[in-house]
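tool=predict chain=A
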Amino acid sequence: MFRIEADRARFREIVRGRIRADLRRYLSTGELIGRAGEHAVSIPLPQIQLPRFVFGENPRGKGGKAEGEGEGESGEGAEGEGGGAAGSQAGAHILEVEVELDELAEMLGEELELPNIQPRGVKELASEGGRYNGLRSTGPDSLRQFRRSFKNALKRTIAAGAYDPAHPRVVPERADFRFRMRKACPAPESSAVVFHMMDVSGSMGREQKEIVRIKAFWIDTWLRSQYKNLEVVYIVHDAVARVVDQHTFFHLRESGGTKISSAYELCLKQVAERYRPEDWNIYPFHYSDGDNWSARDTELCISMLRDEILPRVNQFCYGQVKSAHGSGQFKKDLDGALGDEEILVTASVNDRGDVPDAIKAFLGKGR
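tool=predict ok
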C-alpha cells in the first residue's frame, strides 16, 4: 500500500511538471475551457507514457527493451515505422489527467508570480462549525454530558431527602440528563463579486470573443482560489447593456454601435442593489476593441469611473482586444485621463500570445 502511494505521488509530480512546462501554452489557448468542470479540469498530456505488464513468455536469449524503445521496435516480425507497410499496432494515446482547479490556480500564481489578494470587504457568515460549548436538555445518548447529568441527579436526590451519606446512591432520571450542544459561531469570510463586461457590437469578432473567454476563465480560476464566496455577473453591451448568463456572454453575436457608458451604468446599479462595497470585494473587468460611439460618451465613462466606480471597487481592469475594425482609442483616453489612478489597470491584447501578460497585469497587484 505504501509503495503504491509513493508511486502515485511520484506520478502526480511528473504530471505537475509537465503541466507547468506547458502552462503558458494553456494560458493562450481555449483548450482547457471546454474540459473544465465545477471543481476540476481535464488536461490532455500525450507525452506521458504509463508502464504496463503484458502477459506472455519472454523469449530465451532476448533481453528487455532499451530505454526509449517501444513495442514493435525490436525483435522479429517488427511492425512500424520504416517497414514500408502499414502496421497493426495501436497508436499513441492521449492521457487525460484531472487537476483540481485550486491546484491549477496555484500553478498559475507561481508561473505569473501573482501575490495573494488582501481582501477589503468582509461579510459575516454563520459558520456550520464551532465547538460543543453549550448544553441542552435533549439530544442523543452519544452526546450526554455525564458530570452535569450526575450533578442534577444529586441535587434532586438531596432536595427530596433521599440521599444517605452512609450508603450514597444516586439514580438519574430522564429530566436530569444534559447533552452537549454545538453552537454555530459567526465566522468572517471574505466575499467577492466579478463583473465581466464585454462589447458585443459588430466590430468584435469571434477571435476577439475567444480571447476574452480565455482571460475570463483564468481570472475566475485565480479569484476562486482567493475567496471562499465568489459570484460572477456577466454584462454585454452594444448601444445598450444587459445582464446575461455565462453561455450567452460567450456566444452572443450582435451588430450595431457601441455605447460603453451603458455597461458602466448597469454595473453601478448592480453594486448599489446587490453588492455593497462594505461587504464585498468588487472586481469589474471590461473587454472591448476600443471603439466608442462618441467622445462625449467617453467623457461620461471617465467621469463615472473617477467619481462612482473606482471609489467602490478593489480594482477596475480594462482589456483592449485588437480587431480589424476597432480604433483602440478608448484605452488611450483612459490612460490619458486616469493614468495616475492606482486601482485602474489597462492592458492591450494584440493576439493570444499577449494573454498571459494581460492576466499578470490584472492580477499582479494583489488587490
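Confidence is low (pLDDT under 50) at residues 70-83, 87-93. Residues 191-363 form a domain with the Rossmann fold fold (CATH 3.40.50.410).
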